[in-house]
Amino acid sequence: MHIVYPAVVSVLLFSIGVYGVLARRNTILVLMSVELMLNAVNLNLVAFDVWLRDRLHSGQVLTLFVIVIAAAEVGLGLAIVLALYRNRRTVDLDRLRALAEPGTPDPSASAAGAPEPAPGSGSPERVSVPAAPGAGSPRPAGTASGSPGSSGPDPGAGPGPDLGPDPGAGPRPGSGTAPGADDAGPGTVTP
């Protein structure tokens, strides 16, 4: 087989990959386009290794390294995409341009016209709210509803700590146990 055929296929694959990276806005499709480009490089490495009749098969060995790096890139890339989707609820690259968390004020806007507080005057953003009894340390302002300068609970905070089942709540649906049946605690045997 002549070297032109795999070279043309490789150029086509690489061109499709470059188009996908430059034109697509979906992060998953951009990652797939990068994989197409890496596969085009692998095809070139193997084709030229066979065409040059390399005794050490260095093109094929390098191809194995590229495959391993591509697998690591996919794993890390998908983990980043999942984390971005959990935080931003989108994988559109146009909406992911800003590195700041959504809902945080723009630092350039605050530096443009807002006066700096005097040193030692105490900033209203740092007001502590006493926590409920047994809840641990006080929370900073903005995490508890009703605190000064707060517009409600922090949307990124998620649910509170798991404090276990409510003893007076009765049986859970589908559990088939009576209320208080598992009140003995972990590690104890009930007759």
TrEMBL record:
Q: Can you tell which superkingdom this protein's organism belongs to?
A: Bacteria
Task: Report the EC code(s) recorded for this entry.
Answer: 7.1.1.-
Q: Record's InterPro entries?
A: NADH_UbQ_OxRdtase_chain4L/K (IPR001133), NUOK/Mnh_C1-like (IPR039428)
NCBIfam families per record: PRK05715.1-2
Residue ranges with Low complexity bias: 102-154, 172-191
- Subunit relationships: NDH-1 is composed of 14 different subunits. Subunits NuoA, H, J, K, L, M, N constitute the membrane sector of the complex.
Q: What does this protein do?
A: NDH-1 shuttles electrons from NADH, via FMN and iron-sulfur (Fe-S) centers, to quinones in the respiratory chain. The immediate electron acceptor for the enzyme in this species is believed to be a menaquinone. Couples the redox reaction to proton translocation (for every two electrons transferred, four hydrogen ions are translocated across the cytoplasmic membrane), and thus conserves the redox energy in a proton gradient.
Q: What is the lineage of its organism?
A: Bacteria, Bacillati, Actinomycetota, Actinomycetes, Streptosporangiales
Q: Where is it localised?
A: Cell membrane; Membrane
Would I find Transmembrane helix among this entry's keywords? yes
Q: How does it sit in the membrane?
A: Multi-pass membrane protein
Membrane-spanning residues: 6-22, 29-52, 64-85
User: Which protein family is it in?
Assistant: Belongs to the complex I subunit 4L family.
Instruction: Print the keywords alphabetically.
Output: Cell membrane, Membrane, NAD, Quinone, Translocase, Transmembrane, Transmembrane helix, Transport
Biased composition regions of type Pro residues, renumbered to the chain:
156-170
Q: What is this protein called in UniProt?
A: NADH-quinone oxidoreductase subunit K
Where do the segments described as Disordered lie? 100-191
Its encoding gene is what? nuoK
Q: Which Pfam families match?
A: Oxidored_q2
The reaction(s) catalysed by this protein are: a quinone + NADH + 5 H(+)(in) = a quinol + NAD(+) + 4 H(+)(out)
